[in-house]
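Question thread 4412

I'm putting together a teaching handout and wanted feedback from people who do this every day. The idea is simple: show students a protein as raw sequence, then show them the structure tokens that encode its fold, then repeat with a second protein so they can compare. Below is the first pair exactly as I plan to print it.
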Amino acid sequence: MKIKALKEEKGRLIEELNGLQNSINTEARSMTDTEKTRFSEIDARLDVIGTETETLEKLQKRASEKVASAPVYGAASSSEKTERNKMADAYSFKRAIEQATTGRRDGVEYEMHKEAADEFQRAGVSVSAHSVLLPSDVFKRDMTATGGSAGSEGGVNIQTSVGGIVDVLLPQTILAGLGVTRFDGLTGNLDLPTASTQPSAGWNTENGTATEKSPAFSKITFSPKRLAAFIQVSNQLLRQSSNSIDAYVRQYLINAMAIELEKAAILGGGSNEPTGIIGNANTNVVFAGGSTSAANGAAMVWKDVVSLMKSVESNNGMGQAYITNPLVKAAMQITARQTSGVEGNFILQSGAGELNGYTMKTSTLVPSTLVKGTSGSTLSALIFGDFSKLGIASWGGMELTVDPYSGATAGLTNLVLNAYLDVNLLQPKAFAVCKDIIA
């Protein structure tokens, strides 16, 4: 929007210059001192507008190229990636938190803050003036205390006398490796028109009238939804010299965001959540046990695996992978394809990463708490589909709110990370779901 305003201002100034020149030519006179001063002011302002417009257009071009070129995180030259990785490595949560509490900002943290502010401004997302803003690059690198060459992603800064934090076992995130489609750096809502009827033609006599069949269109709308992660850090830990707090806090927030986003993409539909694959009412549904209804759920059979594939391909989809949870995976490894089959001919072979000739991924983020009929709340899901038809959108970078007051009496600082995201199925019929498996 600022580019448009600058161009409009440039047009007004040029129009004023033309009027001034015409007046001088018409009256065949020299410029007055006032006119000379005004001419100099306009000339200087036009130089500033030109420089600022060029900079903003470059930023806008880079942002659009980033969205269009890459399905996950956007593209950049190798030199740009190297430079941004260096900045991400140099970024310190500890310094950023200290700067937020003191009001003094400088260094890499301030440069990142300014860049993220530009991202949010382009996205049209309002953020607090007192927050620490982070471009998404800071969180796109998987930083751990033992990662990188000789611990170069954090571990190198940890004193040997200080034990590392033993974290909880976390669910595996699996969707990024399945080619989901990303729409990053958005500004405002994103509407994607979708055709809901296939092209139609018909055979006619030589002079027969062709039958018209008008295509029907609908749209998919992505709109920003706030995803927040929260952690409390002791003030004593923040004051310690070891930089291991950077690695832990960053990784904690990365994991919290990634896990919650993936849960929404797979299931979704909760309060303020996007609707995920299982929650979408327009996907293909297969009932467990080879049934056409399975009112109370059932143990799965080989037919269920094949039916999921058939449902997608019958709707002209091209599935690429199955995803499920460890309970279903274990059940498939001890369930024979057919009762009269050869011993050991199980639905899933031990150690196999494939099912029915397709990739299979397993995560506890695929729910085992689904409800149907009288079977309780312990039903599991198996999903087959083309995961490039799952869209994830983001607006701007991330906003880190540093609150040293709420937990002051306990010596704690609250850190809240906000991101603005949405999830939609681009083609629901490219997915088939079995969500009533007893495993």
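The second pair follows. I'd like the answer to focus on this one:
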Amino acid sequence: MNKITIIGTGYVGLVTGVGMAEFGNRVICSDIDKTKIKNLNSGVLPIYELGLEETIKRNIKNNRLSFSSDVKESIIKSDVIVIAVGTPEGENGKADMSYVLSVAKTISKNLNDYKIVVTKSTVPIGSGKQIIDLINNRVNNQNLFDYVSNPEFLREGSALKDFLWPDRVIIGTDSEKAYEIMRNVYRPLYINTNPIVHTSVETAEMIKYASNSFLALKISYINEIANLCEAVGADVHKVANAMGQDGRISDKFLHPGPGFGGSCFPKDLEALLAISEKNNVKMKTVEAAIIANYNQKQRMVEKIINLFHGDIKNKKIAILGLAFKANTDDIRESSAINMINSLNSHGVSINAYDPIANNEMAKIINNINYFDNLYDAVNKVDAVIIMTEWNEFRSLDLKKIKRKMSGNILLDTRNIINMDELSAQGFVYDNVGRIKK
């Protein structure tokens, strides 16, 4: 049984720790935030993720998972140390490495015997060498550790599933010893023939950025195709469906909408662009994806203004969905933020409802009305805007909504509402890239 410490109990750290415990390892999830650790020990999770709470309980019961605010002691007790702290966007789009380097310093002070230092945090290409040099400069015995880059590919809303049944696991290291130990950490996947890919550290770091950036490019591309569909009278659903049947393209991430958000894509695109500029390599496609995503968010605002024929001042609008995607409470870079701020600037009164993310949004926006029930949120509003593809929004009682509203305008930025039903109920509506009935 491998003894592992995860440093950082945010989205990546907590899911990684729970997943590695589920694989049969003994895991300590450690964090300097004592309140967060106290809450975790009391069963209060800092994030919402499907299946996470039940899996945590099971692994605590089986003595494979624990939580500690004593980071130093956790390091000493373990053989594998996983860095899973944040790398927020810093100056000029560069990833802020301060948290990662701080953890690396703490590790260097507590190398009581041989350990593997693993980075799960998304870090710029070349960060592995920086971490290795930092630790080497602080310890006398350079045989006390090996370094591994082990990037994560977790989709919020299905992160635990992605960890337990991954498409691939990347293990970037120059040490055969470290590689074999990490293979053993992921032993259930190896037994089940899930692909475990051994690369250099730099290659592993690049795989992470290249993967996320490509998916972001794909989203921006289909959003622009949707916009062109509107102009020429084509239906983006049928276009995307036909494209997705081509094995070279696949249907994943071909869903038009209000622009991508979350903790990864926006930040990783900016970081990759900063890396490319540092190395004098032009990445015009990445630049275009960033611009296209900004434009798409603005286009959604223009759509609702156009539905009111330009006159939205003093109107009352309900926003349904605040999280950047369904099945998470994460509102980072959510398109709903841009929509709310833009409507506020036009003098619009806003009601908001999200099944999970109300509290998170209220931390940054407090001048709108939050509701715990979507049908209360739409009461006496002039328009409804669907911003997140929650399942409960796919089966709205449109007749009831229309009856409760003062107006009849609906903007479906996720294309989840049947247009025939909207027409039958007398809604004036718009969506993204579809032929209007």
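Top answer:
Good format. For the second protein you could add a caption like this: The chain has a mean pLDDT of 95. The longest strand covers residues 3-7.
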